[in-house]
Amino acid sequence: MSDRTIGELNPPEWLLLGPGPANIPPRVHRAMVAPLVGHLDPAFVAIMDETVHLLRRVFRTENQLTIPVSGTGSAAMEAALCNVVETGDTVVIGVNGYFGTRLADMASRYGAKVVCVEVDWGMPIKPEQIEGVLKKESKVKLVAVVHAETSTGALQPLKGLAELVRSHDALLLVDAVTSLGGVDLRIDDWGIDILITGSQKALMSPPGLGFVGLGQRAVRRLEQTESVGSYCLDLRRWLKSWGSGEMPFTPPVNLIRGLRVALEMIEDKDDFDCLVVPIGGGGLMSGMATVARALKPDIEMVGVQAELYPSMYSAVTGDERPCGGDTLAEGIAVKAPGQFTRQIIAELVDDVLLVPEAALEHAVALLLQIEKTVVEGAGAAGLAAILSNPDKFRGKTVGLVLCGGNIDTRLLANVLLRDLARSGRLARLQIVLQDRPGALFKVMREFNEHNVNIIEIYHQRIFTTLPAKGLTAEIECEARDGEQIDRLVNSLRDKGYVVEMAELA
Fold it and tell me: Does domain 424-501 match CATH 3.40.50.300?
């Protein structure tokens, strides 16, 4: 080691938009940094039991052997293979991307005869292609496919595949590292024998945990396996200790606690009637609409744009409107949306709403005041749409997408103050007075009687159309609400004062 001093660890704060790992919620962070307990501590054993219970619910399975594995999704992949594949077994692997090739490589290392069903990367594998190999090869033990191929984004259809594989007395293994928790996946309903996934993608947890779910057919094959080629990944050890309060190996305690919270958040998510999503170029809405429609075909998808930049609205409705101006929602201020995204939005999105700047400002302020959440103007567009169209959303369970918090602090301060002004809690009164001693004092007594606080006073004597002995007093003030200000103004007018209130757009 060199003599130089190693500096303090200071990792960058990135918004992770790749295929994984993904950013994790603050609740998950907090669960992971709680004081450590031993893995055999009754408190942790209870957490592990709850975690496995929630795993089964997210897996949509009753399979009891649905467990975490210390390691990434690749460790889960290896655990699934080494527990059911022995030397000389024939294994059929669907290859349409990088992780299909990894499955094939792993299976060959355990002595399997690997037969690959290869298609162009990015294309799904047709069931008849797998069926052709199953008819040709005798005694196939396992068929493995990647549900969502991370390297290309290709989604492999699974419905009906298990029946085909089972008709040849083989097991179906599905790599769902990218897909579980993100798209519709029904292990029991679709007859999947073995499913693997990882923590770092749609399960909202850091890398370091893999998961294996084995159905009854797979468990029976596991029990018949003469030799498992890995000591630490031998799932038979889990079978022996399951339900005893013991664990065959030391699990990553804090990672599992974080996972426990993440699974709870997935479990607690509302069954939305409607999703409201800001639209700029249309990429976010296109992706969300595609997934949401796949999971729930009847869900209502509503897009939102600022009135000043109605580009996607014009594209999908044919109502051409000009784009331009200073909008608070600069993150979605796009003059020309993408050709591809507009096709998807035209097909999958039910409506595109336009919101005025005042509604955007109000939404930003409400999210900070009530939810204690800082968002930029684009991120608040969904709430602005609901506030502007209450009848459209009345009685519905609505999901809002808060898609960014990049807002300048000075601008945020202005937005908050302007919102206070619109709500009547801040006001600027212009009062005509005679320029003589005591005139302002009499006005101040009115403010005192109505318990309205004065922030600032400015006398205008020069730039006015009043006579030389007249002036305008501009008084900024604050009150509990607009009604309190109204009572003050009415009282001043009743006493003969000319009072005007500054208005906001």
Answer: no
